[in-house]
Amino acid sequence: MKTSKLSIRLLWYITPLVILPLLFLGGFTLTNVTNSTQKQADLIMSRFVEQQQQKIFNYIDSFHSTAKLLSTSPVLSDFLTNDIRANGDHTRRLGALMDVFASYSEAYPDIISINLVSASGRSDAYYSNNLTTAPKSYPFFNKVLQSNLSKQQFMIQKDDGTTSLYFIQRIYSVDYYLKRPQQLGFIVIHVEPSILNTSILEAPYNNTLNLMLTKDGKILFSSDYNMRGQYISEYELEQVHSLADIGMLSTIELSSIDKIERMIFAVQMPGGYYYVSTIPKGVLYQSGKAISLITGLIVIISVITLPILIFVVVRNLLLNPIELLGAASHRVGDGDLSVHLPAHTNDEVGVLFNDFNHMVNQIRHYQQQLEEYKHHLEDKVESRTKALEAMNSQLELAIGQAEQANQLKSRFLANMSHEIRTPLTAIMGFTEQLLHNDKVANDKQHLSTILRNSKHLLELINNILDLSKIEAEKLAVDQSALNVVQLVHDIESIIEPLAQEKQLTLNVKYDLPLPRTIYSDVTRLKQILINIANNAVKFTEQGNVSICVHYLEASQKLEFVINDTGIGMSEHQIERVFKPFEQADATTTRRFGGTGLGLCISKNLAQLLGGDVTLESEVGVGSRFTITVACKLSDDQPMLEFLTQQSQLVPEKDPFLSFATNSFDANILVAEDNPDNQLLIKLLLQTWGLEPDIANNGAQAVEMALVNDYQLIIMDMQMPVMGGLEATKMLRHAAYDGPIIALTANVMNHDIGTYLEAGCDKALAKPIDKDALENVLVSYLNLEKDNQNKWDSLLKSEKFQQIADNYLANLPAHLEEVKALQYTDDWEALRTIAHSIKGSSGCFNFDEIYHSAAALEENLKSNNKVPRDELVSDLINAIEQAIQDKVS
Q: Which residues have CB under 8 Å from 741's CB, separation 6+?
């Protein structure tokens, strides 16, 4: 294949860029490898010698310690401090000493013998493990006598080349009068140096020669047994001494041993001995040379082969594909669109090949499309026309749906306008008649009409609010126990008058067994049942309406079935009836009224209560609504209790939830800024025998509540000057602990939660419901009545009477203090004592003292000095009267 110019240029660039760094890197690597192998060998040798030195040190120290321990033995002291030969106890004491020597010999197997030598050199006691006799003398004993050291060791080489160790320890006796030690003799321990022999034979490398030299150059131990007993030259000994001082590995030649250049590491041992470890230099660095040789060979091979490999790889990966791509591009330029590059790897070159193939395919595709456009242009125009017609049809359908939605909205607004204006017309008309015509008859009937239309208007507003909360998924349900029989009875009491008005029969049927109590939201469940039952009456002209109650054991749900014999509905009407703002048809709205929200809200509420609302109907026959709700909205509710007999189907009434069975004399505060609402609430409370105090804003309410003792406060939340929320917080901070009932038109859950968090005990919605207000009043006034009864019992108790008597006993002291302060005109101190007397007298029901002290304190706080003396006199008279009443 012809070599391209780009390949030649690439080879010229690659060769110097690769070879020069390789040569530099190879030389650097070779140098580092050689140095590191030498350092590694030096480190191994130095660590080996240090380990052997430490091992020998420990070995020698252990026998020095043994000799010293033996010299302080009580048995030895007893043996030496008595003139043994003078009495007849020598044998016993010598036997005891032999036992001690034997125990040491057993503990240390290397000990050959132990000898007790007197100061004159005589052997007084000798023990040997091989039963030899005591030596007559030691070759080193004169050195021992001449030395002042307490412990010494000697290495004595025998004729056979073996070396023995001797450890000498002086024995002293203390003269307690002169405090001067007296030398009694020596302990001589003869040891077989097994550790030294083992240490000498150990070696970190092959051909290692280890020596133990005396200070005059004699070889005591050697890993080569034939060298024991020989001497090295004085020059060599000086070199060994120098190496031992610097502690480094060095190269010297020991001519006394052989003519080989050796690496030597030497250390000095106790007693002037030298431990020397040698190895031929060629052997020590032999592995390093091999590594260096291999490294150099690798560098040479890399310098030769790497540029060639790089060139081959770059040519195959880059140059050949570029040449192939160039040739293909030239063919495409000549108009040959059949070119297709072969599949390549997933790298950038492969992506380039794929893009090139894609480009050629796109060119081919566009050429084909161009040909098709030329031949089928009319077909394209026709298909486009049909597509535009389809789009126009969809647009017309969307416009129709939008117009239908607009008509639905307009119809809903018209319905709402009609539904709202109808009760408003009745309310305004009858109200004007009552206001302007004093001779109107049946005024109670007119007022009843106004009330009925007002409730209808409120129901419309509540339905719209409920729907908005349902669509926003913010409608929450409560969980509380509700009596099933009482619930159905309440529904019956509301629906029955409506049915009687239209001369319809209302039937209520209980299908036993039924749960006595279920756990659900009683308000929402009543709303569902009343709405559907009311519709049943409204759309029935003749016949009957029935309410049946069943318990579904399989699903643990309660089922209410409401049947009517009304107008009924078709299948199409059933599909629309549960949609918001829709009724069965337009004539239904004109004939029966309504907004079309009731059934939609009822179905959503039933689903929130764990059930549903379903409908079966036939035109002209009637409708059947089935309402199911869960008996328990959560699993943590108690077990259900069931009713099984007809006698149990009588509703229970709480006698304590009515003013008719209670007698209250309560002091109530009403905080309301609207004069009409003030009058309404006052009229309601007066019907129950209660006369409230009125506050026009929150600030007045706080001031009046702190001065007077109210059993209950009804607080409007929206007032000028200070709102009910701020007033409630202020009262709670001022330690007012009585019940506070929030009165508000904001009945959202988060609003009620805010009021309760601020300190309100309950929240009542506007417009005010008489029954709800009555229940709240009875509940909280009963609690206050119970608390008052407990307080009255406490005031009558013997313990309280004893405390009151103690207070009376201290009144004379308070009287004298008040008189003294009046005489000295110390008004500030008098104000303090008046405050104290006011607080204590109020607790013990001394009202005269309380009011006099309070008036005096209030005066002393101001700058009005005119009536002060009179107020002080009133306080003094009140205290004196209380003391006199006690005496009488």
A: 712, 713, 714, 715, 760, 761, 762, 763, 764, 776, 780
The set of long-range contacts for 606-609, using a CB threshold of 8 Å and a minimum separation of 24, is: 606/528, 608/475, 608/477, 608/521, 608/524, 609/477, 609/520, 609/521, 609/524, 609/525, 609/528, 609/633
Tokens representing 386? Answer: 């049909």
Query: Is the pLDDT reported for residue 469 higher than 60?
Result: no
Residues 207 and 280 sit within 8 Å (Cβ to Cβ)? yes
182-219 confidence digits (pLDDT tens): 778 889 998 888 777 777 777 777 777 878 888 887 88
Instruction: Look up tokens 């992506």; give the residue.
Output: 351
Tokens representing 856 are 């005096």
Mean pLDDT over the full length of the chain = 77
Q: Which of 848, 809, 849 is nearest to 833 (CA)?
A: 849
> Helix H segments across 844-867?
847-861
* Distant-in-sequence, close-in-space partners of 383: CB < 8 Å, separation ≥ 6: none
Peptide bond into 204 cis (omega under 30): no
- Quote the Cα angle for 107-108-111, to 5°: 135
Cβ-Cβ contacts under 8 Å for 867 (sequence gap 6 or more): 859
Closest by CA position to 353, among listed 308, 321, 398, 401: 321
Residue carrying structure tokens 């202020």: 730
Task: Specify the range with the lowest mean pLDDT, choosing from 365-374, 462-471, 558-567.
Answer: 462-471
The torsion angle over the Cα atoms of residues 577, 582, 585 and 591, rounded to 10 degrees, is: 100
In this structure, the dihedral spanned by the alpha carbons of residues 51, 55, 60 and 62, taken in order and rounded to 10 degrees, is 140
Q: How many CB atoms lie within 10 A of CB 844?
A: 18
CA-to-CA dists, residue 57 to 243, 266, 434, angstroms: 19, 15, 128
Kindly compute the dihedral angle of the four CA atoms of residues 766, 767, 769, 774, in this order, to the nearest 10 degrees.
60
How far is the C-alpha of 578 from the C-alpha of 707, rounded, in Å? 57
pLDDT single digits (tens) 133-154? 888 888 888 888 888 888 888 8
Rounded to whole angstroms, how far apart are CA atoms 497 and 501? 6
- Would you call the peptide bond into 767 cis, given omega within 30 degrees of 0 as the criterion? yes
Residue reference for tokens 């130095």: 46
CA neighbours within 13 Å on the CB side: how many for 884? 6
Phi-psi region of 875 (alpha: psi -120 to 50; beta: other; left: phi over 0): alpha
Most confident stretch, 51-60, 422-431, 566-575, 716-725: 716-725
- β pairing state of 693-695 and 668-671: parallel
Residues 6+ apart with CB under 8 A from 880: 815
The answer to which of 235-239, 397-401, 440-444, 883-887 has the lowest mean pLDDT is 440-444
**Measured CA angle at 541 (ends 529, 561), to 5 deg:** 30
Q: What is the pLDDT of residue 508?
A: 92
Token pair in block for residue 598 = 């009731």
Query: Is 609:589 a contact under the CB 8 Å cutoff?
Result: no
Distance CA 528, CA 359 (A): 70
Chain-centre distance of CA 26, in angstroms?
58
Candidate ranges 315-324, 594-603, 677-686; pick with highest mean pLDDT: 677-686
Cβ pair 558, 629 in contact under 8 A:
yes
Dihedral sign, Cα of residue 705, residue 708, residue 711, residue 716: negative
Overall residue count recorded for the chain in this entry? 888
* 3-state SS assignment for residue 547: strand
d(CA 750, CA 809): 56
Dihedral (Cα; 470, 472, 476, 482), 10-degree rounding: 0
- Rg (C-alpha) for the chain, rounded Å, is 60
496 phi/psi in degrees, rounded to 5: -60, -45
CB 171: neighbour CB atoms within 10 A? 24
Distance CA 780, CA 792 (A): 18
